[in-house]
Design brief:
Order of helices and strands of chain A: EEEEEEEEEEE
Structural class of chain B: mainly beta
Mean pLDDT of chain B: 94
Helix content of chain B: under 10%
Largest interface: A-B, 28 and 26 residues
Oligomer: heterodimer
Low-confidence stretches of chain A: none
Distance between the termini of chain B: 38 Å
Largest sheet of chain B: 6 strands, mixed
Low-confidence stretches of chain B: none
Shape of chain B: globular
Number of helices of chain B: 0
Shape of chain A: globular
Largest sheet of chain A: 7 strands, mixed
Strand content of chain B: over 45%
Order of helices and strands of chain B: EEEEEEEEEEE
Strand content of chain A: over 45%
Number of strands of chain A: 11
Chain lengths: 113, 114
């Protein structure tokens, strides 16, 4: 299994509060990704990173920001959480970006009340 | 608009028989396709992939077929085992040169009956 750790695994918080999810990898892979999974939508890309301090938007980036200050860590921040951001969030990694599989962590279940 | 579609939300198969999971896509620019398996409370696990220059790829009990003219791919599992019971996602990449951005289907829940 790819060395990917997501924390926390579960979180319940209130609307309007800031939330940060962490993804940590031990594979030294260049690319890291954040997805959300919702019923009827499969997985959708939020943001991704192609190197330290290099990030770009995905399909559903509104309301989210990311940071990558070290190769091994990729943070996803919800500046002011809304109920529509209740979801399961997955981090993924890949060695490079050239048509290759991404490997996923076990997810963070986030509930915003 | 869903660019990658899995029209069957669920599928039930007897142990030992073949499972066939289907996936359709709308954009002919996709050039790399993948299948993932997902158990509850775990992340998706990569199963098998295929490049658009091929029409078949095999790995043990898993075979993926790609029909570019029909914009259709399928995953065959032979023989099916109870441990194969999971949600299966197909995914595609390569649209607009975005080789690292995966577009996922909505998943098919496979139940393999003992």
């Amino acid at each position: 299994d790819a060395g990917i750790t997501q924390s926390p695994r579960h979180k319940v918080t209130e609307t309007g509060t800031p939330v940060t999810l962490r993804c940590h990898q031990t594979e030294n892979h260049r690319y890291m990704y954040w997805y959300r999974q919702d019923p009827g939508h499969g997985l959708r890309l939020i943001h991704y990173s192609y190197g330290v301090k290099d990030t770009d938007k995905g399909e559903v980036s509104d309301g989210y920001s990311v940071s990558r200050s070290k190769t091994e860590d990729f943070l996803l921040t919800l500046e002011s959480a809304t109920s529509s951001q209740t979801s399961v969030y997955f981090c993924a990694i890949s060695e490079d970006g050239q048509n290759q599989p991404q490997h996923f962590g076990d997810g963070t279940r986030l509930s915003i009340l | 608009d869903q660019q990658v579609k899995q029209n069957s939300p669920s599928l039930s198969v007897q142990e030992g028989r073949i499972s066939i999971l289907n996936c359709d896509y709308t954009n002919s620019m996709f050039d790399y396709f993948l299948w993932y398996k997902k158990y509850p409370a775990e992340g998706p696990t990569f199963l098998i992939s295929i490049s658009s220059i091929k029409d078949k790829n095999e790995d043990g009990r898993f075979t993926v077929f790609l029909n570019k003219s029909a914009k259709h791919l399928s995953l065959h599992i032979v023989p099916s085992q109870p441990g194969d019971s999971a949600v299966y996602f197909c995914a595609a990449s390569g649209y607009g040169g975005a080789t690292n951005k995966l577009i996922f289907g909505t998943g098919t829940l496979l139940a393999v009956q003992p």
